[in-house]
Amino acid sequence: xxxxxxxxxxxxxxxxxxxxxxxxxxxxxxxxxxxxxxxxxxxxxxxxxxxxxxxxxxxxxxxxxxxxxxxxxxxxxxxxxxxxxxxxxxxxxxxxxxxxxxxxxxxxxxxxxxxxxxxxxxxxxxxxxxxxxxxxxxxx
Length: 140
Known about the structure:
mainly alpha
């Protein structure tokens, strides 16, 4: 039974998330549990979809229809991370400035999307995780 298509994206998510937590902890000079979520370096979503596309390329080849589908999905996720979610964050910032803090009402999260650097780092993490795992763990 080949579980690589489930395990590799999970491993990419784990590596990207751990790296993001470590970077945020170093920047904040404290354990940054409150900074876990959307946004930040590297992009978890980009790591997941790029690890899937890279694994399909390694196992099936770039001529396989599943690779084309994986690349299409990756572009959709990456474009969403860079444009739509960044716009949502910008709208949250404006809403936060327009509202007055009241008891029980928390400000909206403003850090939602990713920069191109954060996305590129996520893609790099995903491809490296897929390559290293596929190359050095021969159970697949």
